[in-house]
Amino acid sequence: MHLSQRITNVTGGGSDGWDLFNRARAMIARGIAVTELTIGEHDTPTHPSILEAMHTAALGGHTGYAAVPGTDELRATVAARVQAQTGIATTAANVMITPGGQAALFASHTAVCDAADVALYIDPYYATYPGTIRGVGAVPRAVPAHAANAFQPRAEDIDAAAAGAVSLLVNSPNNPTGVVYGADTLAGIAGVCQRHDLWLISDEVYDTQVWEGSHLSPRALPDMADRTLVVGSMSKSFAMTGSRCGWIVGPETAIDHLITLATHTTYGVPGYIQDATVFALARGDALERQVAAPFRRRRAIAQDILARQNSVALIPAQGAMYLMLDIRATGLTGEAFAEALLDTHHIAVMPGESFGAAAAGHVRVAMTIEDGAFASALAALCDFAEARAGQTA
Ligand code: PMP
């Protein structure tokens, strides 16, 4: 039977970028001890107090259909948090709760793209972005952010790609680069959106993981609130990846339509998960800092190790749970480097190429294993790179 182009074309016919990851998982299944520095999954579980709140809510009966837009309490909690962080007036009517950030990305593109519309995104990108855009029937168009510009996107590059586009998807703090967009970058992005009448979809799921500078939400820039949909999530900030709870913050009319869409797709998020989310957010930033602390620590460990060698260059690691390493001095592609490192040292890192052409010659390291093992793996990676660079020189 025929399957729709829309679903069979989600990956665009190419690889989904997860070959290395799948190979590492297959090795583990065969009993080989692989050090996994691939995916953005915390090495600590959800805090027991959040699980207790979930348990209490479920036993208390919040197990039926929950309000499709999100509970009033959670929408108000998210709105208050966003308003406090950005200074921009935000009410519950500006918020819809979603089953995680990924569903929010899909819904946001559904809200702003018609079939065959062009949707822009920045390369390097989180692996699902082009597929999300194809999945709603739109056409993804990548705008490169250059390694030479520390992966900060430039307004002129977005301008050059913007003809005929309806939206731009950005992500700061960034996965995969670990870069946090500065005020100049964001002002440039806002300018392009206004000049070309683009919606801005701002993926801010790493907003609590900022190691240098501060997180700025482009929705807070002048005249941006009416054209910006912010994607948020509990996954990274509270180590709640499996609970699937996120949100979209945007103009009321867009949120109204998104709620109608949710009625026809997800039908909301379980009530006990939403209650636990209210509980977690009400704890202030203490818990978020606790969840972010291991990554902050490991970033410092990595900076120390990387400062002692010359074959691997660290892209400024300003936020998120990843490091982007420039391994071009080895003469290898990111893919060849990651394959060889997996074969010879049983260490799995993601090839930069998995995240787009702009990240070629790089690898992404997730800081998601215990400090000692992380330090050993990074030291081994550097030794491997040094040996390869020596052969090239
Ligand atoms: N955006 C980015 C940049 C991500 O890295 C991820 C998860 N890795 C997501 C969105 C989606 O996260 P979730 O659906 O778990 O909220």
From TrEMBL:
InterPro entries: Aminotransferase_I/II_large, AspAT/PAT-like, PyrdxlP-dep_Trfase, PyrdxlP-dep_Trfase_major. One of its GO terms (molecular function) is transaminase activity. Pfam families: Aminotran_1_2 (PF00155). Residues 34-378 form the Aminotransferase class I/classII large domain. Its cofactor is pyridoxal 5'-phosphate. It catalyses: L-aspartate + 2-oxoglutarate = oxaloacetate + L-glutamate. It comes from the Bacteria. Its EC number is 2.6.1.1. Keywords: Aminotransferase, Pyridoxal phosphate, Transferase. Belongs to the class-I pyridoxal-phosphate-dependent aminotransferase family. This is aspartate transaminase.
